[in-house]
Amino acid sequence: MKEGKMKMEKKRTGPERKKVIRLIDVWKIYTMGKEKVEALRGINLDVYKGEFLVIMGPSGSGKSTCVNMVGCLDIPTRGKILLDGKNIAEMSESDLATIRGQKIGFIFQSFNLIPTLTALENVMLPMTFQSIPRSERVARARHLLEMVGLGDRLNHKPSEMSGGQQQRVAIARSLANDPEIILADEPTGNLDSKTGNIVMEFLQKLHEEEGKTIIMVTHDERLTKFADRAVYLMDGQIVKSLTNGNNKKSGVKKKSLKGARQRN
Predict the structure, then answer these.
(1) What pTM was estimated for this model as a whole?
(2) Which residues are CB-neighbours of 46 under 8 A, at least 6 positions away?
């Protein structure tokens, strides 16, 4: 797949797309002793349904704080974060937990698998908190692991799998409750380039074939080739937003996942 050029984002015309997440003048200020650290400073960002968005920036730019806000893992010091039009800052912790479980699937750099559970049990876990019957949990977890090419690793624990296999279990787990949004925080950070590319191809498939909204945080600019749009953070502010001319809407065919599941 050839790497496309990212272009400065222009105001779109035509039918308005659905905004699934909106950050409106979002600030996050931490108090550390006598110092106040402004991690986010007036962020305005709309995330659209079915979009593959990359959030980029160097260490300390605020991108991890930003993704915590988007994922309802934290609330802003001031400003609004709207998820399907509802302000998360006005929700209780139990309501936020429900939203996280139903609407957002998380993929982390460190995988965050439970070491004492098998791959099947790890993928079943999010469904447990949604009171889904065990028979359905088992069937869906098995299906998801087969989808990511791990049908022969159902009963393996994380220590018995490679890093790439563990990340694919994490991807399957993120899909357990069929969320609308997948939030990936440095998903290739602990992987070699070959395995990282396989993981990115799976995310690409979820975006293009399943219609998932993908929000990915990374410091690796090479990964922007998979995205529809990239926003760049610096010192807690968005400094630029670029669109990708090499996406599915431009008519350029992206690389197929066929055969990728057999590697690594």
Answers:
(1) 0.81
(2) 19, 21, 22, 23
Beta-carbon contacts of residue 15 (< 8 Å; ≥ 6 apart): none
Q: Which CATH class is domain 52-64+94-262?
A: alpha beta
Here the tokens at position 49 are: 């349904």
Sign of the CA dihedral 33, 34, 40, 42? positive
Closest alpha carbon to 120 in 100, 150, 149? 150
Rounded to the nearest integer, the mean pLDDT of the chain is: 85
**What secondary structure letter does DSSP report for 93?**
H
Q: Where are the domains of the chain?
A: 52-64+94-262
Q: pLDDT per residue over 181-191, tens digit each?
A: 999 988 888 88
The CA distance from 73 to 212, in Å, is 20
Please state at what angle helix 163-174 crosses helix 134-147, rounded to 10 degrees. 130
